[in-house]
Amino acid sequence: MVAPLVLLVDDDPAVAQSVAFALETEGFRVRRYGSAEALLEAVEDRVGEGAGLRAARCLVLDYHLPGLDGLALLNRLRAASLAGGAILITTHPRRGVCEDAARVGAVLLEKPLIGGALLEAVRDACGLSRLASEP
């Protein structure tokens, strides 16, 4: 069985590295991007890298990104037919961000990501929690 692919976008290299490490340790494949634009450029490459990205089971997106915020990025990714589960991560969510995230079907997690909250959310987004609990 091929490990689920997670696309991770965070402009803080230390956060991206630690999140990727945690997910890879649990058996996920992770593709990291330092900006919304970098991921969008990769997705638009329909022959090369972008073709494989459509198989992503989960999107982990920093909410506070330069240029395009995580919610706007998620909307662009949905328009490009990336249908994986979505998790927005942020340090200080402004009023209404939780509701905005829920409206587009995303889970919102606050940084620092302590404990198993992120891993549980990624498993849920990939459909792995449901599979593990089924007989």
Automatic annotation (TrEMBL):
The keyword Phosphoprotein applies. Residues 5-126 form the Response regulatory domain. This is Response regulator. The modification 4-aspartylphosphate is found at D62. GO terms for biological process: phosphorelay signal transduction system. Keywords: Phosphoprotein. It comes from Brevundimonas mediterranea. Pfam families: Response_reg.
